[in-house]
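Researcher: We're teaching a course module on how sequence relates to structure. For the next exercise, students receive a sequence and then see the predicted structure as tokens, so they can try to spot secondary structure elements on their own. Here is the exercise chain.
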Amino acid sequence: MIEIDGSEGEGGGQILRSSLSLAICTQQPFRIVNIRANREQPGLRRQHLTAVNAAARICNAEVDGAALASRALTFRPRRLMAGDYSFDIGTAGSCTLVFQTVLPALLTAAGESHVRIMGGTHNNGSPPFDFLARSFLPLLARMGADVELTLERYGFYPRGGGEIRARIASAKQLGAMDLAARGALLRGFAEAYVAAIPLHVAQRELEVIRHRLGFMPSDLLLQALPNDAGPGNAVTITLEHECVTEVFTGFGEKGVPAEVIAERAVEGARVYLAGGASVDEHLADQLLLPMALGSGGSFTARTVTPHVHSNAVVIERFTGRKVTIVPAGDCVQVRVA
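Model: And here is the predicted structure for the students to work with:
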């Protein structure tokens, strides 16, 4: 039984999600204590509990401690099964984080799977749908994965009500990911989403991006969503390079001016463009698990977050593979061997 201390590293939900994915893929049971110990509300929240239940369902696992606010959990995986699955978080909790929990395992299943997840699609503190579809999954495809992800309905905090669907084909072995450089910038564009929010909010956000990044009017897209999807607002900046696409997001918050929301996305994009790293820190978080479960590889990042260090510890405990992080000019090189 692998023992995991959830207070290590960033001390959040990433340690739990990575442990669930790796437990199924390696068929090793684990026990985790101090779940989300470093968060304001420690223990399992709704989206984490949904991730646990989703992981258990796809492999018929035996689970102890799967309850709201639980700070300890024991997970014993059984045989992984491809199939059609539906998971409803029941709140605006992140659909994308639940998806990322089951994705690595279902890639190794003996057959194609179809997954439907209801909850939030654009949540502060979680990768939005746009990031997964444009940035993460294309790199996974380069490693040999065949995954289609579609957005059926938008879901914003606090209402939720969003839905994503995925088709996940079986991948016998993921190839290596070697991403030393991002290549030349091919295109940049921005989108501002509003649902049950005045259109001028999106217009002001796009004007900030136009002024700060020099985008042409044709690169500024206003997406007016149905009122029943809101209230909600998000703005994304997509930078398409030869070898990688990055997405930077600002999430609307009550009482926070539109200009501040846009600046948050702009700052991330400007810092990335000013450096030489192949990926931003958030994409670095997402690449480690598929690389560890596949043929390894390396990439450069401007910096690495505590999520990366947490993932590295969990990966080594489940797989024995080594994650090394070394300086490389104005960035760092991350290698999985």
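Model: If you want an answer key for the exercise: The radius of gyration is 19 Å. The mean pLDDT is 94.
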